[in-house]
Specification:
Blueprint lengths: L5 E4 L24 H10 L4 E6 L1 H4 L5 H17 L6 E5 L15 H10 L6 E5 L2 H4 L9 E4 L7 H9 L7 H9 L1
Helix pairs in contact: 1-7
């Protein structure tokens, strides 16, 4: 296996506690091992890129300004633990809008690949939902890792297990991509 040129990470439920339409920076809580896993990618010079559906913006639950405050707090918590995110891409549309940027669609990933020059044959995807790892199937040579959370439906976990994508925690997922 080749080392990934980038690891695309989901944020809510994978790196931070999924607070359902989080709009208050005070509610941002890193999940156990999140900072260490991102720092491991950083130490290997593998870009850690967030791709996240933020339908709360499109639904009017919070504003882009609210989102940016939450993002800043999240990145501050990572920095305090020696980790950083290299880039972030979000879909701000509600799930009722049939846009091209909502995960698991390819648009945000392809944009990141173009903007940063990532090798599209060495992509990795980590998240707690099937939509986070499904893009693995769209890119030749890509690898996916599903790290189940309390929000992961059993049928999504079972689907990922059939493909060998499931790992018990984020650090194990990152380690499996680097070994």
């Amino acid at each position: 296996m080749r080392i990934p040129s980038v690891v695309f990470l989901d944020r809510d439920g994978t790196l931070i506690h999924d607070a359902h339409y989080i709009s208050d920076p005070a509610l941002v809580r890193l999940l156990p091992g999140a900072a260490e896993a991102v720092a491991r990618l950083n130490s290997e010079n593998i870009p850690a890129v967030i791709v996240s559906n933020q339908s709360g913006i499109g639904r009017g639950y919070f504003t882009m300004e609210d989102y940016e405050k939450v993002r800043a707090r999240f990145e501050q918590l990572l920095a305090e633990r020696g980790a950083h995110i290299d880039a972030t891409y979000i879909c701000p549309h509600s799930s009722e809008v049939h846009c091209l940027c909502r995960k698991p669609r390819r648009e945000l990933y392809e944009l990141a690949i173009r903007e940063h020059g990532f090798d599209s044959t060495r992509l990795a995807f980590i998240g707690d939902r099937w939509r986070d790892v499904e893009p693995t199937l769209f890119f030749e040579g890509a690898r996916g890792r599903l790290v189940p959370s309390e929000m992961t439906p059993s049928e999504e976990r079972e689907r990922a297990e059939r493909l060998g994508f499931v790992r018990p925690d984020l650090m194990v997922a990152v380690d499996s991509l680097l070994s």
